[in-house]
Design a protein that fits this description.
By secondary structure, this protein is an alpha/beta fold. The chain has 8 helices and 9 strands. It folds into 2 domains: 118 residues, 2-Layer Sandwich (Heat Shock Protein 90); 120 residues, Response regulator (Rossmann fold, 3-Layer(aba) Sandwich). A hairpin with a 3-residue loop joins strand 3 and strand 4. Helix 1 runs antiparallel to helix 3 and helix 5 packs parallel to helix 6. The protein is globular. The structure holds adenosine-5'-triphosphate and magnesium ion (MG). Magnesium ion binds next to helix 1.
């Protein structure tokens, strides 16, 4: 493939959000196809609306699902637009995709047909820059850490991964699958809780609301957020304050642990990682 310039975390989030949408559109099963190709587009490229001519890397995510009715198709990129029942969709998936691709000067198009399926096409401009070899992955130092972390996350799989990664690095972990459960545990846990690690977008209670209530109970607690949606999307709608950094889902072990270490030992790490509203 031609090289492109894009934030690695953001393209990952975009791909995951597209795959999750495809899954949701195929409740009875189907085929999810992800393809990449180089495209030299001329003026006649058949995209609607048209895409400026140029060299693009094309990423396509296609499903054989329900398709999207025309009146819905016009609104799919709107933040918080969802046709899913309350508690299932927040309507930030495609807004996150749109944000990620636009920031890389790319274009997103959706084609859909009822009961045939949907194809999302992301066109990312090729760059003339020579790619640098990937930065060496930071070794994850597994020296045992100390501290108690309350993790609130509504997706079982992610809650379990976070619990495992934190436990094997020495932290005490308290888990909660809902905001209400997190508040109960924050209230009744016997002993200190050093950090609240909260998913931002959860049904019934946002991570920020959980944090505000937990802080009222335990004023010294640190707070870190994680989300599968991009920071600009969340902050432009008041869901998260702009200055607050975010652990992007999906995350690797160092993605999760480094910001936590910075909070527990700020003097040892360069660069601030603000976890409190400024
Ligand atoms: N592949 C698809 N097939 C059918 N409909 C889709 C597809 N992708 C998106 N949609 C429609 O677009 C709407 C908005 O999608 P978007 O990803 O922004 O939000 P969501 O999936 O509803 O919620 P979230 O992604 O925040 O969990 C969906 O509710 C659905 O109606
Ligand atoms: Mg979605």
């Amino acid at each position: 493939m031609w090289p492109i310039l894009i934030d690695e975390g953001q393209i990952e989030q975009a791909l995951v959000n597209l795959a999750v949408n495809a899954r949701d559109a195929m409740p009875g099963g189907g085929t999810l196809t992800v393809t990449t190709s180089n495209q030299n587009l001329d003026d006649l490229a058949g995209y609607d609306p048209p895409v400026p001519p140029g060299r693009y890397v094309c990423l396509q995510v296609a499903d054989t699902g329900t398709g999207i009715p025309k009146e819905v198709l016009e609104r799919v990129f709107e933040p918080f637009f969802t046709t899913k029942p309350s508690g299932e969709g927040t309507g930030l998936g495609l807004a996150t995709v749109y944000g990620a691709i636009s920031q890389a000067d790319g274009h997103v198009r959706i084609a859909s047909e009822d009961n045939v399926g949907t194809v999302v096409t992301a066109l990312l401009p090729a760059t003339d820059q020579t790619p640098q070899p990937a930065a060496a992955v930071l070794p994850c130092d597994r020296t045992s850490q100390q501290g108690t972390i309350l993790v609130v996350e509504d997706e079982d799989g992610i809650l379990e991964v976070a619990r495992r990664l934190l436990t094997r690095n020495g932290y005490q972990v308290i888990t909660a699958a809902t905001g209400t459960e997190a508040l109960e545990k924050a209230r009744w846990h016997d002993g200190p809780i050093d950090l609240l690690l909260a998913d931002v977008v959860m049904p019934h209670m946002l991570g920020t609301e959980v944090a505000a209530t937990v802080r009222a109970l335990r004023p010294d607690i640190h707070v870190l957020y994680m989300s599968g949606y991009a920071q600009p999307v969340l902050s432009s709608h008041g869901t998260l304050e702009p200055g607050i950094r975010l652990i992007e889902k999906p995350f690797t072990e160092p993605d999760l642990l480094n910001p936590i270490r910075e909070i527990f030992a700020p003097e040892q790490s360069a660069g601030g990682f603000p976890d409190r509203p400024t």
